[in-house]
Task: structure prediction
Amino acid sequence: MVESANKPPDSEGRNRVLRYLPPALVLTLLAVFFATGLHRYLTLETLVEYRPHVHGFVGSRPLTTVILFILVYALLVTLSIPAAGFMSIAAGLLFGWASGGALAVLGASLGAASIFLIARSSVGEPILRMAGPRVQKLAASFRADSFSYLLFLRLLPIMPFWVTNLAAAFFGMRFQIFMAATLTGAIPVCYAFAVAGSGLDAAIAAHEQQLADCVAAGRQDCQMHFEPDSLLTPRVIVALGLLGVLALGPIILRKWQARRRETQA
Result:
């Protein structure tokens, strides 16, 4: 009776609650984000409209703006909202390509680390256990060369940034390798967008003139048809593509050597 009365509370149920609390919080914040319409502000039109005010805020409160920008960027990535390209462009516009690129890399990396740890510690292992043998085989192959595979996916826009974060967590990738590949891949991509963003003022001026001409002509469909991805020039895309191929170099070489040994045997 005494042992029954002094029995500690069920730790298994408490651990289950703690395990699923972070993803539940992420889903709740994600629902609030879209329900309140905040996603509508992640557009070039909004950036153009509030650009003078934001520039003034950056000039008067530089440290506060830097901290706030990093936190917002990290939160968007944690919530798996596809806004990494937009935020990196905004960083270049607001802080210049050098500082803006560094802030974008930091925000993207912090957000990626957060969602990776949340996904892996809560639902990553159960999902992988429930997956079929084909998916488990794919996950094992991914883990064998996880750095090269993830770096390749970071450099080339084959999959969105948030998808690669979740895929790496579900496939059981080690956190240290995940962060190394994320940082290595985020640096050239974030700086490419930041460089484009630093020259955005001239592009915005041209599109503002087009918008003004459209309004002056009395048209009703006047909008700034300008997507962040369009700032990536063919030259930048080719450069990122070459870096992506180089990232797969160790895998290709290892498979070629293994096939050669099998042929010689």
Q: What stands out?
A: Confidence is low (pLDDT under 50) at residues 1-5. The two ends are 70 Å apart (CA to CA). The chain has one domain: 10-264.
